[in-house]
Amino acid sequence: MTKKPLILIVEDDPSSLMLATAALEADGFDVAGSESAELAREAISRRKPALILMDIGLPGMDGLEFTKELKSRPGTAAIPIVALTANNMPLYERAARVAGCEGFIAKPVSPAALTAEVRTFLSLGRQ
Q1: Handedness of CA 89, 92, 94, 97 (dihedral sign)
Q2: Domains, in order of start, for the chain
């Protein structure tokens, strides 16, 4: 049996985390959720995710700073990171890409669109 890809969702809003988790689990992914950069670091140390969905507005260290940190470390630099945020203005998308995010998904997003985007980013990473 093949191990399912792990998607780490770094999201401080419980309802957004729950909806994204349910959508991705229903589509066959393993999902881990973290409410902060600190908790996400712990999750990554336990099992390296295939993809990280990163909220920009996190408590403490925000998602952009955490993305920069992950992209600067050899052990995590290759993990694709996709911003998943309600801040869907071009300014935020540019900031996310400058920080190192490979993609940008604006909330609210339908479960079907979210899983399609995740599958697209995972297939791009395997080429």
Answers
A1: negative
A2: 6-125 (3.40.50.2300)
